[in-house]
């Protein structure tokens, strides 16, 4: 909380330039903009080139050089997004047995810095532990993302004799192995996942805080929730559910039309909503839907309105 206050007063020229390029108002920066706009750009330096690029940007005191470094990092992030999407498409086109409990994907030309991002996207796509691997010099470099019920780092530790190095936490890990050990390690991981997840329902689940009436969404609730911010890994933002909501307007927005911009209503109450990454869902004006969402504040041109951030949506029964 206090870190955000300090950040808003930052004198770091490179950071200010990066925020300008990303169209982020330093006075309005919050945990969400750091998570989705600032962090990914800084991380992209190491994923696409070298992390030193971000370091030099953050310490640069010359305005022209800071601007150039910020532009370079922003471009690295754009390149990272395109390349990640490309690798995900290539992975989905591989001949992988999707009935396996743990899914493995390998192509020796994939960038090592993107394997973790790709594994995360594939996990969300298939709802199963995923391992994504590439070749760097004479080693196989891999990243894995897992689900609750299968501790991927413990699984790697049990196969330590096959691995050069590894590290991570229960649901995400990275490793390096000799090429001749790859097949054996993947066989072992699949067997362990099958045993530990036997009988488990692998359908992704969303934990909601509370089901509330759409009509009860009001400023007193939003302002109360704001007092618990900033939200993050150890302080998750509460998710709410409301049923039988009418879609009064709907249009796709963003690159590749990946998001829905919606107007939702029930009774005499109407609210704007954005559904990030759900553009593939078939939605239409007049549909009655059940929604899972966070509550947020949308500020523009001096106006302030409540906005719903849709996390999942389905047609109402």
Write the H/E string, N to C. HHHHHEHEEHEEHEHEEEEE
Helix content: 25-40%
Regions with little confidence, pLDDT below 50 for 5+ residues: none
The strands making up the biggest β-sheet line up spatially as 1-2-3-5-4
Describe the global form.
globular
Largest sheet: 5 strands, mixed
Give the termini separation: 41 Å
Keywords:
single chain; 317 residues; alpha+beta; five-stranded mixed beta sheet; five-stranded mixed β-barrel; 11 strands; 28% strand; globular
Characterize the structure shown.
With 317 residues, the chain is an alpha+beta fold. The chain has 9 helices and 11 strands.
Secondary structure layout:
Elements: H1 2-7, H2 13-21, H3 31-48, H4 52-59, H5 63-93, E1 103-106, H6 115-126, E2 130-136, E3 139-145, H7 152-157, E4 163-169, E5 172-178, H8 182-196, E6 210-211, H9 219-226, E7 240-253, E8 259-266, E9 269-275, E10 288-300, E11 303-315
Parallel strand pairs: 1-2, 6-7, 9-11
Antiparallel strand pairs: 2-3, 3-5, 4-5, 7-8, 7-10, 8-9, 10-11
């Amino acid at each position: 909380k206090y870190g955000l206050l300090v950040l808003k007063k930052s004198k770091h020229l490179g950071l200010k330039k990066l925020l300008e390029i990303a169209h982020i108002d330093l006075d309005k920066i919050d945990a969400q903009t750091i998570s989705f706009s600032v962090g990914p750009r800084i991380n992209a330096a190491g994923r696409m080139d070298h992390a030193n690029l971000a370091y030099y940007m953050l310490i640069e005191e010359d305005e022209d050089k800071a601007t150039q470094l910020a532009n370079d990092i922003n471009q690295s992030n754009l390149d990272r997004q395109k390349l990640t999407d490309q690798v995900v498409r290539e992975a989905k086109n591989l001949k992988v047995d999707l009935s396996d409990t743990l899914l493995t994907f390998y192509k020796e030309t994939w960038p090592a810095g993107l394997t973790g991002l790709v594994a995360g996207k594939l996990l969300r796509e298939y709802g199963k532990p995923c391992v994504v691997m590439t070749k760097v010099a004479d080693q196989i470099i891999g990243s894995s993302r897992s689900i609750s019920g299968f501790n991927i780092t413990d699984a790697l530790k049990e196969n330590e004799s096959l691995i050069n190095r590894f590290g991570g936490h229960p649901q995400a890990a990275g490793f390096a192995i000799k090429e001749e050990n790859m097949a054996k390690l993947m066989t072992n991981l699949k067997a362990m996942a099958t045993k530990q997840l036997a009988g488990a329902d692998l359908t992704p689940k969303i934990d909601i805080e509370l089901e509330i009436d759409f009509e009860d969404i009001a400023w007193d609730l939003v302002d109360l929730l704001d007092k618990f911010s900033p939200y993050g890994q150890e302080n998750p933002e509460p998710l709410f559910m409301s049923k039988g909501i009418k879609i009064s307007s709907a249009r796709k927005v963003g690159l590749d039309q990946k998001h829905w911009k919606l107007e939702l209503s029930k009774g005499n109450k109407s609210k704007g909503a954005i559904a990030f990454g759900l553009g593939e869902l078939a939605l239409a004006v007049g549909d009655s839907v059940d929604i899972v969402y966070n509550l947020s504040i949308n500020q523009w041109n001096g106006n302030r309105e409540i906005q719903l951030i849709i996390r999942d949506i389905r047609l109402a029964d």
